Protein 1
Amino acid sequence: MTVFPPTFADDVIDQPAQAQIEAFIDEHRRALNEALDGLTEEQARRSLVPSRTTMLGLVKHAAFVEKVWFDEAITCRSRAEIGIPATPDESFILDDGDTIASIQQAHHEACEASRRATASLGLDDVLHGNRRGPLPLRWMYLHVLRELAQHCGHAEILREQILSGQG
């Protein structure tokens, strides 16, 4: 399996803003992916809330998020062309073949593709493929960081419930 970059926020304190933002995003990508570590397949699929949110579904959704923001928004390809669900809610739906290993790998691959897609871009570069219209990379990065942080919080709570026997 591929590994997330070894850079952490503390490693980039004196670096330019883009390196700092990317490090924070990668920390959250890593934390969400690793939230599945040590869970059984049944635990990862366990539904503890009325929505479609499960531990495995959160990471599957995070892979979808990567493709929306760093494929669709950059390449202007449609979600159908990319091969992802039309709506965020659908991205939480688990298929019979989804496993911890397969979802973690898909998430790793989506994150690597996102890094490649943004490698030559600057924070002020404007991207045209989002439904909101043209957006600077800076705004997209901050939006993704916010979403990842929220989902990391969700994962922490779900994981705590699962491991404490409450879920």
Protein 2
Amino acid sequence: MSFSMLPNALSIIRIILTVPIVIALLKEQYLLTLLLFLVAGVSDALDGWIAKQFSLQSRLGSILDPVADKVLLTCSFVALYWIEVLPLWLLMIIFVRDVIIIAGALGYFLGDENSESDLLEPSLISKVNTVLQIALVLYLLIIQIYVGIDGFQDMVFIIVATSTALSGADYGLLWVKKFILQESKK
């Protein structure tokens, strides 16, 4: 494997790590889940840093990185809901946002033959939202280990729900603008 493929390989490793993370979570092995999730987080930070530092950004990487994040977070959230740590209403907000993003991206990239060279760039609100969603998973894992610090759940749920809804609305507007531009070019 050449060095230029390292960022993409790290994204793939993050996708693969999803399986043991979910298994450990479903078995309520919270410390192991936390450690694996932290390894996945480090791989996320490293792949972005390496890609930017060494000018290794690619279209594949711009797709793989957010896909890896979505797979890891979505599967973690479903497992957290399954073990009754995450409320269904928050899982649904997160799910709807992800559907908006995926549907918009598919529609845009399938509908515009010139989009093949575009890199997918997340918005600032989306980056903040991803950080908050990761923090939510970490918080929920930590309060399973240290029960005495669980008094902030409702506030944390509301913050993540708000950032998720704002990010979904931001992407919805982005896709509407892109579709309007696509149609005006035809």
Protein 3
Amino acid sequence: MRAVLAPLGLAVAAGAATLLVALVDPGEPGHYPACPFLTLTGLYCPGCGGLRAVHALTQGDPAAALGFNPLVVIMIPVVVLLWGRWALFSWQGRRDAGKVINPAYVWAFLGLMIVFWIVRNVPFGEFLAP
């Protein structure tokens, strides 16, 4: 039972953060700090629009969420799947519970994130900007 505390703790923290974003609109100025990368460079980072995307999802508007940050929207089910696998492995007492991600997938995601980061900041990728 002790091994399940880490995945459950993370689920509670993620749920609380999602509830906060659902209740406090990130689209209204003054509620959340500005993205430091955007402030310093004027360019969008891969996470820009992520809070607004999560807020839109909690309000039942997936189309708006995709407009704010499609990478975040696409990654939410992946993260939930990985969390579920971690929780299951922990519940079963498997020793490899913390090693649920193949390094090749991590590198592929990092490559995708870098491409997304670049494309959303060039003129032909304007549709990816939040």
Protein 4
Amino acid sequence: MEKIAPTAAELEVLNILWKTEPLTVKEIHELICKTKDVGYTTTLKIMQKMTAKGLLRREPNGKSHLYFSNYEKEETRGRLLDRFVDSAFGGSASSLVMQLLGNKKTSKEELDEIKQIIEQMENKSSLK
């Protein structure tokens, strides 16, 4: 997957599958149509390309096919985030965090959660 980076449309399909898989093209198309106007053949074409790229696998199911994601959500997000941090922030996670916190209105609850994550990371590194 290192060289495979899902497009925005492909991520939309993956996010649907990660919630409930397997699904048919028709089922995925119906879910996508709840938020945007997309033709069935567009959804089908995206999923065919994803299968060719190795992002999805399909298995026969009567007259249709069931689609499964080939990669876990966290693995995919992690690789996408790594590529983004490397290309946009020169590999600096702290630069990403500072930019994100500077651009967004962060709630007290979110800041508390971030502090808790940092404390957990510090505790893990002190155990090593």
